[in-house]
Hints:
22% of the residues lie in helices and 25% in strands. It has helices at 23-30, 74-78, 101-108, 112-117, and strands spanning 39-45, 50-56, 62-71, 84-89.
Amino acid sequence: MRRRDRGEAPKRVLHIARELPSREEAVRFMHDEGLPPETLETHYACGGEVRCVIFRSAKGYVTYCFERLCFLDAEEYRHSAVPAVWQPMPEGACQPVYTSLRDLKRQLIFEPEYRTYFVD
């Protein structure tokens, strides 16, 4: 029987106000968040706000994605467990798949995002 059916008041949820972490704290917290379990390598740039994730697909191929850290504002953070989210870039772009990590790395250096963020 539910509380309401027994005439009891529903439990109140205690909301503890949290302070929005600094940008640097959020970057440290989000460092390895949201990585797929099949991740092989992760490369970070722009102070940890951009990453390239290389992972094995469900069918055994090797692929990658570029992600950018998008920070939540104070109101969004009140309703979230994390201070930021990783968003794919370019949004909605399909990435090629390779049969080996070596082949992927040979081609990855020609990607515009890789050249912009990861080449010194």
